[in-house]
Amino acid sequence: MRAACQEMIYELAKSDPRVFFIGSDLGSGTMEGFKSEFQGRFLMEGVSEANIIGLAAGLALEGKIPYVVTIATFNTRRCFEQIAVDVCLHNLPVRIVGQGAGYVYAPLGPTHQAIEDIAIMRALPNMTVVAPADADEMRRLMAQTADWPGPIYIRVAKGGDQVVSSGDHGFQIGKPILMRAGADALILTTGITLQIGLEAAKRLEGSGIQASVLHVHTLKPFAGDEILEAASRARCVVSVEEHTVVGGLGSAAAEALAEARLDRAVPFRRIGIPDVFAHEYGSQASIMATMGITAERVTAVVAELLD
Amino acid sequence: MAASRRGHVGSAFSLVEILRVLYDHVLRFDPKRPNWHERDRFILSKGHGCLALYVLLAEKGFFPDRELGRFCLSDGILGGHPEYGRVPGIELSTGSLGHGLPVGVGMAINAKYENATHRVFVVIGDGESNEGSVWEAALCASKHRLTNLTVLVDYNKQQSYGATSDVLELEPLADKWKSFGFAVREVDGHDIQELSATLSGVPFNPDSPSVIICHTIKGRGVPFVEGNLSWHHKNRLTDQEINELISALEAQQ
Predict the structure, then answer these.
(1) What is the per-residue pLDDT for A262?
(2) What's the number of domains chain B is made of?
(3) How many CA atoms lie within 13 Å of B149's alpha carbon, on the beta-carbon side?
(4) What per-residue confidence (pLDDT) applies to A70?
């Protein structure tokens, strides 16, 4: 997914002279092709995220479309105020690409794990927040980013995530995708939890429970109406995210459900990181298992809510 | 200010001559076309000094004088910090410190990329220079050899709590900027001739960005405001205080 994202920035730059690439201190050789072909539009500015976001805002004020690429924690937490003031307050088309979000950097510990990036980006006026599920979906998203008005935060997982999305579903920023329809339960996913949601739905089907999977790749603007519409047809709703349960997909869904006037109460549960920092290393999958972000857990929670 | 009875009075009087020289003699602009691409970009990064900037922008015709009477009022466009998109001639919403220089660096990189002739000028404060982002941007400006970028430091040696030497010492300030790769000049920031002559010489070095350290006095020109920390930011100004300010200014003429 990360490679697809970077390839697409290169592709966009070929046809759009407004596109700039700005990195901090990325891996040696990153974006070699872009660098040699579009030298003046390639900037690698060192470990100085506050400066980089301001610099990107300066370029955007001049009509450029900068893609700011670095590790998600440093591209959100470290320079949050620059994003709020320089980018969002001025409503500029800066694209903030948060690489290795969630637990991708599991072995490197909690300083490198972006567990609240969606929450803090979602809280900013004018910001759009998108978390694609896999490399294919990333390509479909990126193709739409050059002309999207205002800032975008793009949450990037790692490489080799199982491809589950399909071009047949199309892709439109802000519009969730119904990946699977079933009358009993509604599973909401974002980013790579789409894979978990689909796996859970398959398992539930084995025990006679039909689940819908609604892939909410865009966290902001949040498609509350589509979610309420899907929820109104379900007997329970479960959200799944590789992110703290504070302020992410589950919170956004809860806000929509709590303010809605549904004909009946729909049992609802958030599955995500339970408001803690991880204190183990291992792998992305192993920490997600510790935090209970797995197909097994989704299956069990759905069964419990329907019981 | 008489309308809202508030404002960063000391800060405005500290930098008013710097802005006067910039707008009278240095900056290329057209108030009828505030977005004219070939204009020089000016960012007041220490946005709290905006009272002085508003007066100059009005004088130059960016907006009608009557706006000055609505400073900080709900029906006005001029806030306690300058706002982009709302006030013609304001390139960036500032107020939070440490933002103007990184954004100015981005604008200067763009001008260089486009081989454009316009320049970028950024006024920063001394208290503002506590912010790490100022120095990140300085490294970046130097790396890119942004000869089209000039930083002016309003160095009145006072910040909100007290003397900069007590709160967070900046000295040796000129050496710091030199070591960050800037060509450095120091001037009396209230001397119009010296400011004007110095600014006409930018870039000072054909290969590096420029910084002018402007030695200033906070509240300069009003004896009871000069160097008086309580005038860094004032609200609920009384009629008497406003009259005294006006008398002190008139006495200078």
Answers:
(1) 84
(2) 1
(3) 33
(4) 97
3-state secondary structure of A209: coil
Q: Where in chain A is the domain with CATH 3.40.50.970?
A: 2-155
Contact A50 B136 (CB under 8 A): yes
Residue numbers of the domain that contains B72: 9-244
User: What pLDDT is attached to residue A251?
Assistant: 98
Residue of B99, B109, B136 lying closest to A48 (CB–CB): B136
CATH architecture of A2-155: 3-Layer(aba) Sandwich (3.40)
CATH architecture of the domain covering A174-306 = 3-Layer(aba) Sandwich (3.40)
Domain annotation covers residue B2: no
Q: Do B137 and A55 touch (CB under 8 A)?
A: yes
**B199–A contact, CB cutoff 8 A:** no
What DSSP line would sit under B12-38, residue for residue? HHHHHHHHHHIIIII----TT-TT-TT
Query: Contacts of residue B92 in chain A, CB cutoff 8 Å?
Result: 61, 86, 90
* Nearest Cα residue to B149 out of B67, B68, B208, B63: B208
Residue B106 forms contact with A (CB below 8 Å): yes
- Over residues A112-148, the pLDDT tens digits come to 999 999 999 999 999 999 999 999 999 999 999 999 9
For residue B253, pLDDT over 80 is answered with: no
Write down the H helix ranges in B114-235.
Answer: 132-143, 164-167, 173-179, 192-199
Residue found by looking up tokens 């992410």 in the block: A248
**pLDDT value of position B232:** 86
In chain B, which residues have their Cβ closer than 8 Å to the Cβ of A50? 98, 102, 132-133, 136
Q: What's the confidence (pLDDT) of residue B2? A: 81
Do the domain assignments include residue B142? yes
Binary contact (B136, A81; C-beta < 8 A) = no
Q: What would the pLDDT profile of B201-215 be if each residue is shown by its tens digit?
A: 999 999 999 999 999
